[in-house]
Amino acid sequence: MSTPSSKPSGLRNPGAAVRGIGAGALATMAVVLLMAIVPLIRLDVPGGAVATVVVLVVVAVVLCGMLGRAWAWWAGWVVPVALLVSGIWWNVVLTVLAVVFGLLWGYVLYVRRSVLTT
User: For this UniProt entry, which segments traverse the membrane (predicted)?
Assistant: First the structure.
C-alpha cells in the first residue's frame, strides 16, 4: 500500500504550475487586447478606449511576472473589470472581451484554489 503523498495534486511543484497557468491567461489577454487595437481604430472608437487597451496590455504583462505575490492574483481582476467599465463607456466590443476575460480569470482562480488546497 502507498502512503498519502504530501503533494495530493500529483504535481512536482503545484505553485509553479498554477503561476504558469495564470501567466498564460494574462499573456493571452495581452495578445488579444493588442490584436483589438486596429479594429477599435477602424471603428472610430475614441482615443481613450485605445489608450485604455494599451494600458491594460501593460498591466497584464506586468502581472505575469508578479504572480508569485498573493495580491497579484486578485489584481488580475483589474483587466476584465476595467474592460467592462470602458466597454460600457465606449464600445460593446470591449464589454464582450471583459466577459470572456472575466470567465477565464475566474476559472484560473478556481484551478489555483483547487490545486493548492487539495
Answer: 20-41, 48-68, 88-110
Residue extents of the structural domains in the chain? 15-117
Contacts for 30 with CB less than 8 Å, ≥ 6 apart: 57, 60, 61, 64
Res 93 pLDDT > 70: yes
First to last CA, the chain: 21
Report d(CA 60, CA 33) in Å as an integer: 10
Give the three-state DSSP class for 28. Answer: helix
Residue 2 pLDDT greater than 50, yes or no: no
- Exposed e or buried b for every residue in 66-85, given b needs 16+ CB within 10 A? bbeeeebbeebeebbebbbe
Mean pLDDT, to the nearest integer, of 28-50?
Answer: 91
